[in-house]
Amino acid sequence: MDYGTFRGLYTLLLIILMVGIILWAFSKRRKASFDEAANLIFADEEPTRDGNKNAGAKQE
């Protein structure tokens, strides 16, 4: 097997891997978990005992 054939097979492997990742990312089975992960930033934080969410922050 010469160098050109090896490079061609390697390129084919990378293309198949890329298509697999794209299919995995856009599959309907993964949509719910991706939507949940996307909305984690909007989840409410638990307040501390004194009711202040930013208990560690410096107050002026």
From TrEMBL:
UniProt keyword Transmembrane helix, yes or no: yes
Membrane-spanning ranges: 6-26
Pfam (any one): FixQ
UniProt KW keywords: Membrane, Transmembrane, Transmembrane helix
Protein name: Cbb3-type cytochrome c oxidase subunit 3
Organism expressing this protein natively: Aeromonas simiae
